[in-house]
Amino acid sequence: MPVIVASDLDRTLIYSAAALALTMPDARAPRLLCVEVHESRPLSYLTETAAQLLTELGDEALFVPTTTRTRKQYQRINLPGPPPTYAICANGGHLLVDGVSDPDWHARVQARLADECAPLAEVQDHLLRTADPVWVRKHRTAEDLFAYLVVERELLREEWVKELGEWAENRGWTVSLQGRKIYAVPKPLTKSTAMREVARRSGADLTLAAGDSLLDADLLLAADLGWRPGHGELAEASWTAPGVRALPERGVLAGERILREFLRTVRSR
Protein backbone atom coordinates (compact mmCIF):
# COMPACT_ATOMS: atom_id res chain seq x y z
CA MET A 1 0.00 0.00 0.00
CA PRO A 2 1.52 3.35 -0.99
CA VAL A 3 2.20 6.21 1.39
CA ILE A 4 0.95 9.61 0.23
CA VAL A 5 3.12 12.62 1.00
CA ALA A 6 1.04 15.73 0.27
CA SER A 7 3.14 18.83 0.82
CA ASP A 8 2.61 22.51 0.31
CA LEU A 9 5.36 24.07 -1.80
CA ASP A 10 5.99 27.79 -1.23
CA ARG A 11 7.63 28.50 2.13
CA THR A 12 7.31 24.81 3.01
CA LEU A 13 9.54 22.97 0.54
CA ILE A 14 10.65 25.77 -1.82
CA TYR A 15 11.64 29.35 -0.97
CA SER A 16 12.08 32.68 -2.69
CA ALA A 17 15.29 34.60 -2.02
CA ALA A 18 13.42 36.79 0.47
CA ALA A 19 12.13 33.77 2.40
CA LEU A 20 15.37 31.73 2.66
CA ALA A 21 16.17 32.99 6.20
CA LEU A 22 19.90 32.37 5.87
CA THR A 23 20.90 33.59 9.31
CA MET A 24 24.18 31.69 9.54
CA PRO A 25 27.59 33.15 8.50
CA ASP A 26 27.91 33.30 4.72
CA ALA A 27 30.64 30.66 4.65
CA ARG A 28 28.31 28.19 6.37
CA ALA A 29 25.25 28.83 4.20
CA PRO A 30 23.89 25.72 2.46
CA ARG A 31 24.33 25.22 -1.27
CA LEU A 32 21.08 26.03 -3.07
CA LEU A 33 19.37 24.60 -6.14
CA CYS A 34 17.08 26.84 -8.19
CA VAL A 35 13.83 25.03 -9.03
CA GLU A 36 11.83 27.87 -10.57
CA VAL A 37 12.63 30.51 -13.19
CA HIS A 38 10.14 33.23 -14.09
CA GLU A 39 10.66 35.82 -16.81
CA SER A 40 14.27 34.63 -17.15
CA ARG A 41 15.00 35.20 -13.45
CA PRO A 42 15.60 32.60 -10.71
CA LEU A 43 12.69 32.64 -8.31
CA SER A 44 12.53 29.62 -5.96
CA TYR A 45 15.11 27.44 -4.28
CA LEU A 46 15.69 24.47 -2.02
CA THR A 47 18.96 23.22 -0.59
CA GLU A 48 20.96 20.67 -2.54
CA THR A 49 20.50 18.30 0.39
CA ALA A 50 16.73 18.81 0.22
CA ALA A 51 16.85 18.07 -3.51
CA GLN A 52 18.48 14.71 -2.81
CA LEU A 53 15.97 13.93 -0.06
CA LEU A 54 13.06 14.79 -2.34
CA THR A 55 14.46 12.50 -5.06
CA GLU A 56 14.67 9.65 -2.57
CA LEU A 57 11.18 10.38 -1.29
CA GLY A 58 9.75 10.26 -4.79
CA ASP A 59 11.19 6.76 -5.20
CA GLU A 60 9.70 5.48 -1.93
CA ALA A 61 6.31 7.19 -1.59
CA LEU A 62 3.59 8.83 -3.66
CA PHE A 63 4.72 12.46 -3.50
CA VAL A 64 1.87 14.88 -4.25
CA PRO A 65 2.79 18.59 -4.64
CA THR A 66 -0.11 20.46 -3.03
CA THR A 67 -0.34 24.18 -3.73
CA THR A 68 -2.56 27.23 -3.91
CA ARG A 69 -0.72 28.16 -7.10
CA THR A 70 -2.55 28.09 -10.41
CA ARG A 71 -1.64 25.35 -12.87
CA LYS A 72 0.45 27.79 -14.89
CA GLN A 73 2.36 28.94 -11.82
CA TYR A 74 2.89 25.36 -10.65
CA GLN A 75 4.20 24.24 -14.02
CA ARG A 76 7.05 26.75 -13.78
CA ILE A 77 8.51 24.66 -10.96
CA ASN A 78 11.03 21.96 -11.87
CA LEU A 79 11.32 19.75 -8.80
CA PRO A 80 14.00 17.07 -8.53
CA GLY A 81 12.97 13.44 -8.52
CA PRO A 82 10.47 11.47 -10.60
CA PRO A 83 7.59 13.48 -12.13
CA PRO A 84 4.62 13.34 -9.73
CA THR A 85 1.70 11.19 -10.85
CA TYR A 86 -0.67 13.52 -9.01
CA ALA A 87 -0.48 17.22 -8.15
CA ILE A 88 -3.04 19.43 -6.42
CA CYS A 89 -3.29 23.02 -7.72
CA ALA A 90 -5.49 26.05 -7.04
CA ASN A 91 -5.99 24.93 -3.42
CA GLY A 92 -7.73 21.76 -4.58
CA GLY A 93 -9.61 23.21 -7.52
CA HIS A 94 -7.54 21.20 -9.98
CA LEU A 95 -6.29 17.65 -9.57
CA LEU A 96 -3.53 17.01 -12.07
CA VAL A 97 -2.99 13.44 -13.25
CA ASP A 98 0.28 13.03 -15.14
CA GLY A 99 0.31 16.81 -15.55
CA VAL A 100 -3.24 17.15 -16.92
CA SER A 101 -6.24 18.47 -14.98
CA ASP A 102 -8.94 15.87 -14.33
CA PRO A 103 -12.10 17.45 -15.83
CA ASP A 104 -14.53 15.42 -13.74
CA TRP A 105 -12.84 16.50 -10.50
CA HIS A 106 -12.87 20.15 -11.54
CA ALA A 107 -16.56 19.97 -12.46
CA ARG A 108 -17.39 18.49 -9.05
CA VAL A 109 -15.51 21.31 -7.33
CA GLN A 110 -17.28 23.98 -9.35
CA ALA A 111 -20.69 22.49 -8.60
CA ARG A 112 -20.02 22.46 -4.87
CA LEU A 113 -18.81 26.07 -4.84
CA ALA A 114 -21.90 27.19 -6.73
CA ASP A 115 -24.11 25.48 -4.15
CA GLU A 116 -22.35 26.60 -0.97
CA CYS A 117 -20.61 29.97 -1.50
CA ALA A 118 -21.16 33.52 -2.65
CA PRO A 119 -19.96 33.94 -6.24
CA LEU A 120 -16.39 34.97 -7.00
CA ALA A 121 -17.62 38.15 -8.72
CA GLU A 122 -19.20 39.38 -5.47
CA VAL A 123 -16.00 38.79 -3.51
CA GLN A 124 -13.82 40.38 -6.16
CA ASP A 125 -16.07 43.45 -6.26
CA HIS A 126 -15.83 43.79 -2.47
CA LEU A 127 -12.03 43.59 -2.61
CA LEU A 128 -11.85 46.24 -5.32
CA ARG A 129 -14.19 48.59 -3.44
CA THR A 130 -12.68 48.31 0.02
CA ALA A 131 -8.94 47.79 -0.50
CA ASP A 132 -6.86 50.96 -0.31
CA PRO A 133 -4.88 51.71 -3.51
CA VAL A 134 -2.13 53.07 -1.26
CA TRP A 135 -1.10 49.52 -0.30
CA VAL A 136 -2.55 47.37 -3.09
CA ARG A 137 -0.15 46.53 -5.91
CA LYS A 138 -2.15 43.93 -7.85
CA HIS A 139 -5.66 42.44 -7.97
CA ARG A 140 -5.85 38.88 -9.30
CA THR A 141 -8.25 35.99 -9.70
CA ALA A 142 -6.94 32.43 -9.94
CA GLU A 143 -8.47 29.81 -12.22
CA ASP A 144 -11.90 31.52 -11.81
CA LEU A 145 -11.98 29.95 -8.34
CA PHE A 146 -10.62 32.49 -5.84
CA ALA A 147 -9.13 35.98 -5.59
CA TYR A 148 -6.03 37.51 -4.09
CA LEU A 149 -4.29 40.86 -3.65
CA VAL A 150 -0.59 41.62 -3.75
CA VAL A 151 0.06 44.31 -1.14
CA GLU A 152 2.73 46.43 0.50
CA ARG A 153 2.74 44.63 3.82
CA GLU A 154 4.19 47.50 5.86
CA LEU A 155 1.32 49.79 4.76
CA LEU A 156 -1.45 47.22 5.17
CA ARG A 157 -4.00 47.87 7.92
CA GLU A 158 -4.45 44.77 10.07
CA GLU A 159 -7.97 45.96 10.91
CA TRP A 160 -8.92 45.75 7.24
CA VAL A 161 -7.79 42.13 7.04
CA LYS A 162 -9.86 41.28 10.12
CA GLU A 163 -12.91 43.06 8.70
CA LEU A 164 -12.48 41.25 5.39
CA GLY A 165 -12.33 37.91 7.20
CA GLU A 166 -15.59 38.63 9.03
CA TRP A 167 -17.30 39.73 5.82
CA ALA A 168 -16.07 36.63 3.95
CA GLU A 169 -17.05 34.25 6.77
CA ASN A 170 -20.72 35.11 6.30
CA ARG A 171 -20.50 34.27 2.60
CA GLY A 172 -18.80 30.91 2.82
CA TRP A 173 -15.29 32.21 2.16
CA THR A 174 -12.08 32.37 4.18
CA VAL A 175 -9.19 34.86 4.22
CA SER A 176 -5.47 34.14 4.52
CA LEU A 177 -2.53 36.57 4.67
CA GLN A 178 0.67 35.01 3.31
CA GLY A 179 3.66 37.27 2.90
CA ARG A 180 2.61 39.99 0.45
CA LYS A 181 -0.57 38.20 -0.66
CA ILE A 182 -4.07 38.29 0.80
CA TYR A 183 -6.15 35.33 -0.37
CA ALA A 184 -9.95 35.10 -0.39
CA VAL A 185 -10.84 31.44 -0.91
CA PRO A 186 -14.18 29.57 -0.82
CA LYS A 187 -14.36 27.37 2.27
CA PRO A 188 -15.13 24.13 0.36
CA LEU A 189 -12.07 24.71 -1.87
CA THR A 190 -9.55 22.75 0.19
CA LYS A 191 -6.35 20.82 -0.31
CA SER A 192 -7.57 18.11 2.05
CA THR A 193 -10.53 17.14 -0.14
CA ALA A 194 -8.23 16.64 -3.11
CA MET A 195 -5.74 14.70 -0.98
CA ARG A 196 -8.49 12.32 0.12
CA GLU A 197 -9.37 11.76 -3.54
CA VAL A 198 -5.76 10.84 -4.32
CA ALA A 199 -5.79 8.45 -1.34
CA ARG A 200 -8.97 6.83 -2.64
CA ARG A 201 -7.58 6.38 -6.14
CA SER A 202 -4.20 5.08 -5.02
CA GLY A 203 -5.39 2.91 -2.16
CA ALA A 204 -2.93 4.57 0.23
CA ASP A 205 -3.19 3.57 3.88
CA LEU A 206 -0.98 6.35 5.30
CA THR A 207 -1.02 10.08 4.51
CA LEU A 208 1.68 12.57 5.50
CA ALA A 209 1.46 16.33 5.01
CA ALA A 210 3.27 19.62 5.60
CA GLY A 211 2.36 23.27 5.28
CA ASP A 212 2.93 26.72 6.75
CA SER A 213 -0.24 28.75 6.17
CA LEU A 214 -3.85 28.81 7.35
CA LEU A 215 -4.80 27.39 3.96
CA ASP A 216 -2.76 24.30 4.92
CA ALA A 217 -4.49 23.68 8.26
CA ASP A 218 -7.19 21.47 6.76
CA LEU A 219 -4.52 19.45 4.94
CA LEU A 220 -2.58 18.86 8.15
CA LEU A 221 -5.74 17.91 10.04
CA ALA A 222 -6.77 15.43 7.34
CA ALA A 223 -3.39 13.66 7.22
CA ASP A 224 -2.38 10.86 9.55
CA LEU A 225 0.78 12.82 10.44
CA GLY A 226 1.75 16.40 9.67
CA TRP A 227 4.55 18.93 10.13
CA ARG A 228 4.70 22.71 10.05
CA PRO A 229 7.82 24.92 9.95
CA GLY A 230 8.78 27.51 12.55
CA HIS A 231 7.64 30.35 10.28
CA GLY A 232 4.38 31.28 8.54
CA GLU A 233 0.80 31.94 9.58
CA LEU A 234 0.43 28.71 11.55
CA ALA A 235 3.60 29.35 13.55
CA GLU A 236 2.61 32.95 14.21
CA ALA A 237 -0.71 31.72 15.58
CA SER A 238 1.04 28.95 17.59
CA TRP A 239 -1.32 26.58 15.80
CA THR A 240 -1.02 22.88 16.46
CA ALA A 241 -3.19 19.77 16.51
CA PRO A 242 -2.93 16.09 17.43
CA GLY A 243 -0.63 14.36 14.98
CA VAL A 244 0.92 17.65 13.82
CA ARG A 245 4.49 18.45 14.86
CA ALA A 246 5.71 22.05 15.06
CA LEU A 247 9.33 22.22 13.92
CA PRO A 248 11.74 24.90 15.16
CA GLU A 249 13.54 25.41 11.84
CA ARG A 250 12.73 28.49 9.78
CA GLY A 251 13.34 29.29 6.13
CA VAL A 252 14.92 26.94 3.62
CA LEU A 253 16.38 24.71 6.33
CA ALA A 254 12.82 23.98 7.48
CA GLY A 255 12.13 22.52 4.06
CA GLU A 256 15.11 20.24 4.44
CA ARG A 257 13.96 19.14 7.91
CA ILE A 258 10.44 18.42 6.67
CA LEU A 259 11.77 16.15 3.93
CA ARG A 260 13.91 14.30 6.48
CA GLU A 261 10.81 13.75 8.61
CA PHE A 262 8.84 12.47 5.61
CA LEU A 263 11.58 10.01 4.67
CA ARG A 264 12.14 8.83 8.23
CA THR A 265 8.43 8.11 8.62
CA VAL A 266 8.11 6.31 5.27
CA ARG A 267 11.14 4.13 6.01
CA SER A 268 10.01 3.26 9.54
CA ARG A 269 6.82 1.54 8.43
Record keyword descriptors for this entry.
269 residues, alpha/beta, five-stranded parallel sheet, four-stranded antiparallel sheet, 14 strands, 26% strand, globular, hydrolase, hydrolase activity
Task: Give a verbal description of the structure.
GO terms for molecular function: hydrolase activity. This protein is an alpha/beta fold and 269 residues long. 34% of the residues lie in helices and 26% in strands. The protein contains nine helices and 14 strands. The protein has helices at 48-60, 71-74, 103-116, 120-130, 158-169, 191-202, 217-222, 233-236, 252-267, and strands spanning 3-7, 32-38, 41-47, 62-65, 86-89, 94-97, 100-101, 136-142, 146-151, 173-178, 181-186, 206-210, 225-228, 244-246. The chain has a five-stranded parallel sheet, with helices on both faces. Helix 7 (217-222) links the parallel strand 12 and strand 13 (225-228). 41% of the residues are buried. The mean pLDDT is 96.
